[in-house]
Design brief:
Elements lengths: L5 E4 L2 E3 L1 H8 L2 E5 L3 E3 L13 H9 L1 H10 L3 E2 H5 L8 E4 L3 H11 L2 H13 L5 H16 L3 H6 L14
Parallel strand pairs: 1-3, 2-4, 3-6
Antiparallel strand pairs: 4-5
Helix pairs in contact: 1-2, 2-3, 6-7
């Protein structure tokens, strides 16, 4: 999917629900949200990409701890994990909508290319990733948005992209 995906989480997020949340680009958890991978607690293994997403987000050792122990944790604990300072956040009502609006106002082509590059980075060596970055940069440059955004403007002015 080219557009960023935001998980708005509340209550219990367990098993497949957590796997789905891990696959999202952003996760915003309401106060009191509780998480558990839970599969080990029912004698099962991961599904819905949990075993793929979790180690990439928190590292292998933390992923093994979460998966093999099956313990419950809250958003405050998840925020302390490696890789989580912006992607997983505790939010108040409306935080997810504000994030969605901010992303919608951004340059859609740039956002799609950045998301794709981050996702495929695990598949490439450095040379391959640099080649993918070059192709994505040229694709973004062909839209005219790059030139528009880099032109001088009045001091303090912010460029808006309107989602295109």
């Amino acid at each position: 999917m080219r557009a960023p995906v935001i998980a708005s989480l509340q209550g219990a997020v367990a098993g497949a629900g957590l796997s789905l949340a891990l696959a999202c680009d952003f996760a915003i958890a309401a106060e009191g949200t509780r998480f558990t991978l839970a599969y080990v607690n029912i004698g099962a293994s991961c599904d819905l990409s949990g075993s793929w997403s979790l180690p990439r987000l928190v590292g292998l050792r933390k992923a093994l701890e979460i998966a093999l122990l099956g313990e419950r944790f809250d958003a405050a604990e998840a925020l302390r994990w490696p890789g989580q300072p912006r992607g997983c956040r505790s939010g108040t009502r409306g935080t997810d909508a504000r994030l969605a609006q901010r992303l919608a106002r951004g340059p859609a082509q740039s956002i799609a290319q950045l998301k794709r590059l981050m996702r495929i980075s695990f598949e490439h060596d450095l040379r391959g990733q640099l080649d993918a970055e070059r192709a994505a940069f040229l694709s973004c440059a062909s839209t005219g948005r790059l030139c528009e955004a880099s032109m001088p403007s009045s001091p303090g002015a912010r460029r808006g992209f309107g989602g295109s």
